[in-house]
Amino acid sequence: MDAWPLRKLVLRTPRLELRPDDDEGLFELVDVALAGVHDPAEMPFTVPWTDWLPDDHGVGMMQFFWGQRAKITREDWTINFIARFEGKAIGVQSISGHDFGALREVHTGSWLGQKFQGSGLGTEMRVGVLQFAFDHLDARVARSAAWLGNHASNRVSAKLGYVPDGTISVAPRGARLEQVRLRLNASDFVRPEWDVSVEGLAECVQLITN
């Protein structure tokens, strides 16, 4: 068995290639993030990591991804896929599972460099990991969240079959904001005309499920 079989995992959608994060890819991601992820007047993340970039130049980003990679177990795992478009890193699509063997549930999250937004790439990479979860890991439920006022994100979620599943209040910059929790049952997933291609799963599946 390979010492780190996740390095062989690859998801391919019509325009994107998604691979679990590695150090070379993380350096690319830092550059993408420094070029801009969102309007500085807003904070789309529950942890305001983009506020720290001008001061630490990405050190915190690297440490975060290293930490998540190091903590992967069957009981609690997160895979941060680096999404590449035309060979270049453009953002991250994450998928995580807690007690996945029993619950068969995943959580997803993502971010995309600002200059790559608005072209459907964010939706495509989310669909890719949803198909990976439902069709290849036998997940039954996928969960996500979005700000109450993020109408674009919530419209995309609705088109994919998500339904609201309550709210939660957070304060990433010290002011109260409300997030909508979202739930997608495998049977309700509105699929595109294409299927994700998955390579290398057999080598690493024992790391994340049983």
Automatic annotation (TrEMBL):
This protein is called GCN5 family acetyltransferase
A single Pfam family it belongs to is Acetyltransf_3
The keyword Protein biosynthesis is annotated on this UniProt entry: no
Q: Which organism is it from?
A: Lentzea aerocolonigenes (Lechevalieria aerocolonigenes)
Q: Which UniProt keywords apply?
A: Transferase
Q: Where is the N-acetyltransferase domain?
A: 16-183
Q: Which InterPro entries does its entry note?
A: Acyl_CoA_acyltransferase, GNAT_dom, Ribosomal_N-acetyltransferase
Single GO MF annotation: protein-N-terminal-alanine acetyltransferase activity
Q: Which domain of life is it from?
A: Bacteria
Gene Ontology cellular component annotations, sorted alphabetically: cytoplasm
